[in-house]
């Protein structure tokens, strides 16, 4: 369908607040990209700029080579000229219209014939699994169904790009989990390009081809879910996505082809880090290292290059599939996830080993 | 993306595509949204700014001889050096403050009882509570004059006969009397200002407070009332401002106790020899400064608080259970209805069926003479009825269209600066008391051809004067509609205008009908704008009532007042049928 290009986007509210601060990214055809971040990070504002609901102060937005917004040219196409689809958090179902009328609205706006409208409405309703509910009063439906109406409405007129503004956050947890998968599959099936805004990292992981993590109006990291999780670029991303240990240390020497030694005083140890070191790091400079709890393994086994740490279990919570442990090592309490079938007791001395490829040096 | 458009962007848009060139910077400013906004500004300037400017100008000008004018402060110094004017200023403030405080207390309580509690007989009392809204405070003054005038008042007669009192217990010719009548008749305004937001509030907001452990009253005080604060404060300030400029009540009940207000003095200066236009304009300007000050405070308090209490999701209203307190609520509501509806209307009814009125109904005097007289024989009264109907239906319609349009222009769209300007201009007429608006239109247009069309001039003046009220009714509904409802239509490909037509207006329908009804009622009762502006032929009902009250027996006045009341009630019933306003409880 379309390639979305967002370039140097800046949006201020009033003179003080910089909601979006120089954001640039592209979305390829058929790609599902998620803008992820805490509230106030500028993700929704960015989405609304793409939709044409906000006029950015600076920057360009192009879709399929067409200039939608360009501050230098003074162009800002109104939303109705952009042929996008958008699903809102509140669903924004029009209460004075039936389900069909809601879905038909966008098709009618394009001046389609009656037969065409009916066909497309039926198709859209079938896609979202609401066939037969067309004549219902839309606001009488359940939250999940309203959500589907809203999706059908956005899909019905073949928009170039679908925009989602936290569409699942008003649903209950079970339904939300089911809708995630269903929605992602539907979008892949229809080969749609989608930009999805959420603060829910699990949602972003499950659904996206690529995640753009934002904070304070700036992009923190861009990458596929795997890379974002395993190689976070800074402590914000590491901490925002999943659970992690963040260690303060000093850079040591590089070990050829294997990684960088980092002196971690709180662990009273040196650890070898293999990720996040593709840049100049002066020996002796302060840096942060992150290690995910599930990548810390107990026991002596493992390859020879693994970092080995000794410690004592200070607390262990049993979660069924795993143990969530705190293990004191030096003056640091490491968070460690251990398989549920292991035998763990508080006070027990343990040996941990961590592959250097799981130790990521952060950029801040 | 194509290399062509990429390079254009990188070159800073030197040679843009044709599509891009069409919407250059200038094009971006003069888009359809902005031209609508600028158009509204122009219209409001002609309607409101022009007459008010002429009015203020005339406060600073004297005409020592024909064709010569001098810029001067004499009008102010001369007028305000009299103790009469200083007393009147104090009286005006006391009346305004008393009216807004009492009507706010009663109006908000009643609105809450009706919208959010399980008080019994709500539907009946809802209708009864709103009746004073249709009656106008001036009509109330006429009725209370019949009830509580020291010697001839029905209530006084009864009390003296029942308890053998030596002196009449009530005196309506007093400050207390004026404030009471005003407060009684402005309570429904307060009620209407609040009930909309109370009705539309997501009950989960209250329920969560209850779950948090707060009781009924505390929830009302901490959650419900604060959430409707914007609506409530608007109401209270508007009532304050309106009652400062009220003319009818003090002009009827004030003179005997020698209580004058700024508006009664302005009227005297404009109508009695020697005419003092400069002095009247000076007084009026001061009154406007007071009202502007009130509005400024309102903006400062209300502007930072606006709540979207309704989401795009469906919601179900729920009610608070008051327990035994519901009978207290019931008693409060019934007392209000007694004082504001039953007694006044009862007095007028009794008086209208006695040809000669001596302070009590006498079967021997039973007659329909008064009714026949005002309905058929008295040409002036019949013409006034016709005029009022035209003004209410046609004028009301034009005004409601304008209000809907302006509400949209103000609350929607992206150019917030222009929206703010339109909002400001369309709120300004609140700061211009009716009497002054009438006077401003009179001195602005008197030497133009427009003055030959007095009905049109009246309509324009009404429209300008009452625009803010209609606008507020519609905006409050519009404000509580999530803008996502419209945004999603825009994204679906429908333009600004067609979104208004297909999404906004249908969703606003209850608000639009409520505003039309409100304007119809205001126009039918209108006194202060018309009292200076209307000619003998174009006099509407309220002006006729004012003239009748000076020259005719109470029976005739009462009958005519009841004809006006009947028209208002009839209009209301028809509007409610058409707009299915039951749910809106207007």
Structure explained in plain terms:
The complex is a heterodimer of chains A (364) and B (586). By secondary structure, chain A is an alpha+beta fold. Chain A is 23% helix and 36% strand. In chain A, helix 2 packs parallel to helix 4. Chain B has 27 helices and two strands. Chain B is globular and about 70 Å long.
Tag the structure with descriptive keywords.
heterodimer; A: six-stranded mixed β-sheet; five-stranded antiparallel β-sheet; B: 586 residues; mainly alpha; two-stranded antiparallel sheet; 2 strands
Entry summary:
The complex is a heterodimer of chains A (364) and B (586). Chain A is of the alpha+beta class and 364 residues long.
What's the topology here?
The complex is a heterodimer of chains A (364) and B (586).
Chain A: E1 4-13, E2 17-27, E3 32-36, H1 43-51, E4 58-63, E5 66-70, E6 75-76, E7 85-87, H2 99-109, H3 114-127, H4 143-155, E8 161-165, H5 173-189, E9 193-198, H6 201-207, E10 210-215, E11 218-223, H7 225-230, H8 235-240, E12 245-255, E13 259-264, E14 269-273, E15 286-291, E16 296-298, E17 307-318, E18 322-329, E19 332-339, E20 349-354, E21 360-361
Parallel strand pairs in A: 3-9, 3-10, 7-8, 8-9
Antiparallel strand pairs in A: 1-2, 1-4, 4-5, 5-6, 10-11, 12-13, 12-15, 13-14, 15-21, 16-20, 17-18, 17-20, 18-19
Chain B: H1 3-10, H2 18-22, H3 25-29, H4 32-59, E1 61-62, E2 70-71, H5 74-80, H6 83-116, H7 122-135, H8 137-148, H9 154-163, H10 175-200, H11 203-211, H12 216-227, H13 229-244, H14 248-253, H15 262-271, H16 277-302, H17 325-352, H18 369-377, H19 379-411, H20 416-427, H21 434-445, H22 454-479, H23 484-491, H24 496-525, H25 528-533, H26 541-551, H27 554-579
Helix pairs in contact in B: 4-16, 4-20, 4-21, 5-16, 6-10, 6-13, 6-17, 7-10, 7-17, 8-10, 8-17, 8-27, 10-13, 11-12, 13-16, 15-16, 17-27, 18-27, 19-20, 19-22, 19-24, 19-26, 21-22, 22-24, 23-24, 24-27, 26-27
């Amino acid at each position: 369908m379309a390639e979305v290009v967002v370039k140097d986007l800046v949006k201020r509210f009033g003179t003080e607040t910089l909601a979006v601060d120089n954001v640039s990214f592209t979305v390829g055809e058929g790609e599902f990209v998620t803008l992820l971040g805490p509230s106030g990070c500028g993700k929704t504002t960015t989405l609304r700029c793409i939709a044409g609901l906000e006029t950015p102060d600076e920057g360009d937005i192009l879709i399929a080579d067409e200039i939608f917004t360009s501050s230098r040219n003074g162009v800002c196409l109104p939303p109705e000229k952009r042929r996008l689809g958008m699903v809102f958090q509140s669903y924004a179902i029009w209460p004075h219209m039936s389900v069909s009328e809601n879905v038909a609205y966008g098709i009618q706006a394009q001046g389609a014939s009656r037969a065409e409208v009916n066909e497309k409405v039926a198709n859209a309703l079938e896609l979202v699994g609401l066939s037969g509910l067309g004549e219902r009063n839309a606001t009488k439906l359940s939250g999940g169904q309203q959500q589907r109406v809203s999706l059908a409405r956005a899909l019905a007129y073949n928009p170039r790009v679908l925009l989602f503004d936290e569409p699942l956050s008003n649903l209950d947890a079970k339904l939300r989990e089911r809708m995630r998968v269903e929605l992602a599959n539907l979008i892949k099936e229809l080969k749609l390009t989608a930009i999805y805004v959420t603060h829910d990292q699990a949602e972003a992981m499950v659904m996206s081809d690529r995640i753009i993590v934002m904070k304070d109006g700036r992009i923190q990291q861009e990458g596929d879910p795997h890379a974002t999780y395993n190689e976070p670029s800074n402590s914000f991303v590491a901490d925002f996505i999943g659970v992690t240990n963040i260690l303060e240390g000093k850079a040591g020497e590089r070990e050829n082809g294997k990684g960088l030694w980092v002196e971690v005083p709180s662990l009273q140890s040196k650890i070898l880090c293999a990720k996040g070191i593709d840049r100049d790091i002066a020996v002796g400079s302060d840096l942060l290292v992150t290690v995910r709890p599930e990548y810390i393994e107990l026991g002596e086994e493992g390859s020879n290059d693994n970092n080995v740490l000794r410690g004592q279990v200070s607390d262990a919570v049993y979660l069924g599939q795993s143990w969530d442990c705190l293990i004191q090592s030096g003056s640091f309490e490491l968070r460690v996830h251990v398989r549920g079938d292991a035998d763990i007791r508080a006070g027990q001395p343990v040996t941990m080993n961590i592959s250097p490829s799981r130790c990521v040096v952060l950029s801040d | 993306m194509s290399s062509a458009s990429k390079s254009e962007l990188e070159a800073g848009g030197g040679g843009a595509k044709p599509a891009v060139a069409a919407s250059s910077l200038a094009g971006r400013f003069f888009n359809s949204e902005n031209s609508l906004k600028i158009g509204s500004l122009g219209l409001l300037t002609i309607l409101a700014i022009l007459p008010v400017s002429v009015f203020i100008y005339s406060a600073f000008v004297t005409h020592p001889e024909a064709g010569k004018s001098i810029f001067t402060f004499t009008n102010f110094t001369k007028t305000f050096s009299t103790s009469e004017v200083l007393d009147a200023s104090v009286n005006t403030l006391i009346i305004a403050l008393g009216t807004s405080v009492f009507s706010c207390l009663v109006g908000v309580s009643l609105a809450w009882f009706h919208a959010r509690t399980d008080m019994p007989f709500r539907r009946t009392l809802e209708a009864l509570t709103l009746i004073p809204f249709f009656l106008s405070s001036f009509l109330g003054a006429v009725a209370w004059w019949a009830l509580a005038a020291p010697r001839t008042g029905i209530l006084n007669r009864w009390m003296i006969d029942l308890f053998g009192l030596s002196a009449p217990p009530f005196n309506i010719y007093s400050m207390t009397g004026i404030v009471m009548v005003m407060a009684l008749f402005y309570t429904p305004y307060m009620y209407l200002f609040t009930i909309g937001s109370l009705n539309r509030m997501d009950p989960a907001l209250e329920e969560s407070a209850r779950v948090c452990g707060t009781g009924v009253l505390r929830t009302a005080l901490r959650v419900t009332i604060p959430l409707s604060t914007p609506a409530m404060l608007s109401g209270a300030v508007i009532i304050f401002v309106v009652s400062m400029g009220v003319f009818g009540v003090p002009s009827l009940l004030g003179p005997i106790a020698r209580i004058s207000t700024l508006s009664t003095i302005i009227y005297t200066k404009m109508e009695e020899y020697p005419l003092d236009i400069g002095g009247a304009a000076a007084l009026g300007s001061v009154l406007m400064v007071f009202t502007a000050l009130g509005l400024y405070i309102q903006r400062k308090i209300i502007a930072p608080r606006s709540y979207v209490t309704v989401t795009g999701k469906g919601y179900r209203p729920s009610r608070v259970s008051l327990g035994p307190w519901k009978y207290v609520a019931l008693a409060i509501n019934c007392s209000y209805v007694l004082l504001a509806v039953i007694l006044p209307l009862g007095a007028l009814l009794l008086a209208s069926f006695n040809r000669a009125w001596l302070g009590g109904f006498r079967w021997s005097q039973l007659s329909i003479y008064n009714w026949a007289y005002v309905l058929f024989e008295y040409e002036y009264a019949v013409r006034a009825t016709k005029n009022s109907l035209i003004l209410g239906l046609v004028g009301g319609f034009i005004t409601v269209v304008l209000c809907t349009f302006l509400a949209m222009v103000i609350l929607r769209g992206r150019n917030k600066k222009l929206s703010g300007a339109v909002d400001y201009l369309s709120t300004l007429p609140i700061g211009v008391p009716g009497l002054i608006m009438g006077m401003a239109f009179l001195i602005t247009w008197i030497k133009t051809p427009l003055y030959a069309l007095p009905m049109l001039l009246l309509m324009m003046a009404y429209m300008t004067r009452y625009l803010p009220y209609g606008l507020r009714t519609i905006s409050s509904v519009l404000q509580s509609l999530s803008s996502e409802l419209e945004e999603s239509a825009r994204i679906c490909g429908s333009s600004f205008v067609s979104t208004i037509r297909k999404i906004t207006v249908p969703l606003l329908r209850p608000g639009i009908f409520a505003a039309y009804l409100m304007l119809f009622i205001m126009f039918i009762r209108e006194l202060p704008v018309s009292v200076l502006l209307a000619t003998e032929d174009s006099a509407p009902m309220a002006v006729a009532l004012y003239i009748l009250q000076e020259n005719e027996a109470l029976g005739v006045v009462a009958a005519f007042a009841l004809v006006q009341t009947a028209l208002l009630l009839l209009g209301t019933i028809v509007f409610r049928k058409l707009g299915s306003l039951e749910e809106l409880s207007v």
